[in-house]
Amino acid sequence: MSRIEEREMARKPKTPVANPIAPEIYADRASAxxxxxxxxxxxxxxxxxAEDNAETxxxxxxxxxxxxxxxxxxxxxxxxxxxxxxxxxxxxxxxAEKKTKTAAKTTTKTAKKPSRSRTTRSxxx
Length: 125
Fold this sequence. Notes:
alpha+beta; 36% helix; 3-stranded antiparallel sheet
């Protein structure tokens, strides 16, 4: 097997082994996302009833620490789910974002590469 084939095999994500005791964490939102060195860190938060039950308070539900590669993979998967939710009518994109994406597609399709003109260099005498 060539080195290129070995690298390609190493890049493909493997199916994770089921772990029945892995915790399932519920979160209402991500309260913080940061990159520290080569590690992306996400803090998850949940709302819970305060002692007086009149108000809610935000509490940290957990933390995720991902490699940059893992973070980018998560981002791509999340974009795919958002697109599915939009296609199913569960969510709507804001009008401004729709216009921007449409304009970007139109610009990309109609944009031409700038021509490279050759300039002559004059010699100093």
